[in-house]
């Protein structure tokens, strides 16, 4: 029951935001009375934060699994990860929810949510850093140290996220392609 409540809550929070989602709607979709939600969650804030935690944990698991592929050339791994982000925005409710909430958190939960977002970002940095360390060892990149390369790549990824949230996949793709080309050329030039 708890899992179904969270699944339906994610759908409503993702599509309607915190303010636009109601516990009554969620309960109706689950097939229970609104009061039954309170036997599992303290209230809307608690449910929202549990759903967000689940989305962010899934994001980390996905990213870790993807970015730790050792059998994929560095250039392909990083380029494909940018593009898979764009695909996931259309296909995965949890990814879309987490990304939107990082830009538009409910005001009264802003600090709590941003702490969670920054924790995820802090977890992502070592994953990307290890790729750049590998790239330097394999002499694939030349122009920067591993940490600078990792942070610059994460900045490109952040730009893609901004475009996804504000403009949609088409604009995100055209900007990602342009940024990637210049970014990679800069890393590999001597």
Automatic annotation (TrEMBL):
Q: Which UniProt keywords apply?
A: DNA-binding, Transcription, Transcription regulation
Q: Look up keyword DNA damage and say if it applies.
A: no
Question: Which top-level group of life is the source organism from?
Answer: Bacteria
DNA-binding region residues: the ranges are 22-41
List the Pfam families hit by this protein, alphabetically: TetR_N
All copies of domain HTH tetR-type, residue ranges: 1-59
Coiled coil (residue ranges): none
- InterPro entries attached to this UniProt entry: Homeodomain-like_sf, HTH-type_TetR-like_transc_reg, HTH_TetR, Tet_transcr_reg_TetR-rel_C_sf
**Per its UniProt record, what PANTHER family does this chain match?**
HTH-TYPE TRANSCRIPTIONAL REGULATOR RUTR, MYCOFACTOCIN BIOSYNTHESIS TRANSCRIPTIONAL REGULATOR MFTR-RELATED
Q: Under which name does UniProt file this protein?
A: AcrR family transcriptional regulator
Which source organism does the UniProt entry give? Bacillus chungangensis
């Amino acid at each position: 029951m708890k899992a179904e409540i969270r699944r339906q809550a994610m759908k409503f929070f993702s599509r309607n935001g915190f303010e636009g989602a109601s516990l009554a709607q969620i309960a109706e979709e689950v097939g229970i009375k609104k009061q039954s939600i309170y036997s599992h969650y303290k209230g809307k804030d608690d449910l929202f934060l549990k759903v967000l935690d689940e989305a962010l944990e899934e994001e980390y698991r996905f990213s870790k699994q993807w970015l730790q592929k050792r059998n994929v050339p560095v250039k392909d791994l990083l380029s494909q990860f940018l593009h898979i982000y764009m695909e996931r925005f259309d296909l995965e409710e949890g990814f879309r929810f987490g990304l939107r909430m990082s830009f538009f958190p409910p005001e009264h939960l802003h600090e709590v949510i941003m702490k969670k977002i920054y924790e995820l970002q802090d977890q992502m940095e070592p994953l990307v850093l290890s790729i750049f360390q590998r790239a330097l060892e394999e002499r694939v990149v030349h122009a920067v140290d591993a940490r600078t390369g990792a942070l610059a790549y994460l900045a490109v990824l952040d730009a893609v996220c901004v475009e996804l949230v504000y403009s949609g996949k088409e604009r995100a793709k055209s900007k990602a392609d342009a940024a990637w080309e210049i970014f990679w050329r800069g890393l590999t030039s001597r």
